[in-house]
Amino acid sequence: MNMNTNLLRSVLFCLLSIFAIQHAQADDNEWPFKEGNYWEVTGIKVADGAGLKYANWLAKEWRKNLEFAVSEGWLESYYVISNVHPRADEPDLYLVRIFKNMATAEENEKRQEKYMAWVKKSMEKMQDESGDRAEYRTIMSTSLLQEMHFRDK
């Protein structure tokens, strides 16, 4: 090999090394995850003997309300997840609502107005119905979680 070939290889090696170092530094300064959808998860304890009653309410009223929210674009999806072997201090069911982002206060006001026009019930009536459900179910917890997606490199 002649001297020019060695010099050219050395220069190319240096340039490639600089690009590799810059890329590695860029990767080190970037969070490895991207934020995804929010998951609101509510843990429910159902009273003994009330499983069918609560399941019927979920299948009719709760589902109808959440389908409306999906149709408006407020929710992406929703699930009912059963805790197959719950311990005494654990929920029997988890109600999951998935949405893209948090609404602003102004957006929440607009949503409430639209929902109230759609549901055709007074706030008092809805509060009474919620109180009635408290006889056979207990809300144990509500968590707000967020999906974390690996950032593709």
Describe the structure.
The protein has 153 residues and is of the alpha+beta class. The protein is flat and about 90 Å long. Helix content is 48%, strand content 27%. The protein has two domains: 30 residues; 118 residues, 2-Layer Sandwich (Alpha-Beta Plaits).
Over all CA atoms, what is the radius of gyration?
27 Å
Order of helices and strands: HEHEEHHE
Report the structural category. Answer: alpha+beta
Helicity range: 40-55%
Total domain units: 2
Largest sheet, spatial ordering of strands: 2-3-1-4
Question: Unreliable segments (pLDDT under 50, ≥5 consecutive)?
Answer: none
How confident is the prediction overall: mean pLDDT? 88
CATH topology of the largest domain: Alpha-Beta Plaits
Strand segment count: 4
Structure annotation, total helices = 4
Terminus-to-terminus distance:
38 Å
- The top-level CATH class of the largest domain is Alpha Beta
CATH architecture of the largest domain: 2-Layer Sandwich
Write the layout of secondary structure elements.
Elements: H1 3-28, E1 33-46, H2 51-71, E2 77-82, E3 93-99, H3 105-119, H4 123-133, E4 137-150
Antiparallel strand pairs: 1-3, 1-4, 2-3
